[in-house]
Amino acid sequence: MTDKAISPLRRRLIKDMTIRRLGPGTQQQYIRHLKSFADFIGRSPDKATPEDVRRYQLRLASIGTTVPTLNAGASALRFFFRVTLKRRDLAETVVSVREPRRLPVVLSPEEVSRLLASTTNIKHKAALSLTYATGLRSSEVVSLKLTDIDSDRMVIRVEQGKGKKDRYVILSPNLLDILR
Predict the structure, then answer these.
(1) Count of beta carbons in the 10 Å neighbourhood of residue 128
(2) Burial call 48-83: b when 16+ CB within 10 Å, e when fewer
(3) How far apart are CA 103 and CA 114, in angstroms?
(4) How far apart are CA 139 and CA 129, in angstroms?
(5) DSSP code at position 170
(6) Whole-structure pTM value
(7) Which value, in Å, is the radius of gyration of the alpha carbons in the chain?
(8) Which residues contact 148 (CB under 8 A, 6 or more apart)?
């Protein structure tokens, strides 16, 4: 797509998202949701009315759209109306849906022991132990470096984890033995 194919309104939206440092994936999703909204109402989204927003969200709910998708669309519309158009009245008409909370499946200590004992490769055992003991995501475990482990303070530094955030996690003595 060339710059000429982008409408001034979309260009302004992209600049607003860039200023606020929204990630490329978020920007792409917001644009997709706004295009879907514009297609639904049959005109430019800057000409939308509160009734258009209500009908669009009702349509999404009626076709069985998942809760995360509904909320992502609501965030996109809210951002567009509040930031790009400066129309707080429309932003307030957008509703988010509560997602039901589910308890996670937790392994028993025996199941964890069997899982760790089933690995024959020490590298695999260390990765599984790190994941279980620290709650790290798999991408965070894979990107760890030796310098990230601080055995004096008993912490592991996680750089640029989810949301591009740095954080520390606690390092247990048993995990330190496995890593050594």
Answers:
(1) 17
(2) beeebbeebbeebeeeebeeeebbbbbbbbbbbbbb
(3) 23
(4) 14
(5) E
(6) 0.65
(7) 23
(8) 156, 157, 158, 159
Residue-level length of the chain = 180
Q: Which amino acid is at 78?
A: R
pLDDT bucket at 1, cuts 50 / 70 / 90 = very low
Question: Measured between alpha carbons, how far is 28 from 110 in angstroms, rounded to an integer?
Answer: 44
The token pair at 100 is 């039901």
**Location of structure tokens 């849906």:** 97
CB atoms within 10 A of CB 137: 13
Residues 6+ away with beta carbon under 8 Å from 5: none
- Structure tokens belonging to residue 178: 């496995």
Coil, strand, or helix at residue 150?
strand
Q: For residue 143, name the pLDDT band (cuts at 50, 70, 90).
A: confident
The two three-digit tokens of residue 101, written as one number? 């909370």
> Which conformational region is residue 176 in: left (phi greater than 0), alpha (psi within -120 to 50 degrees), or beta?
alpha
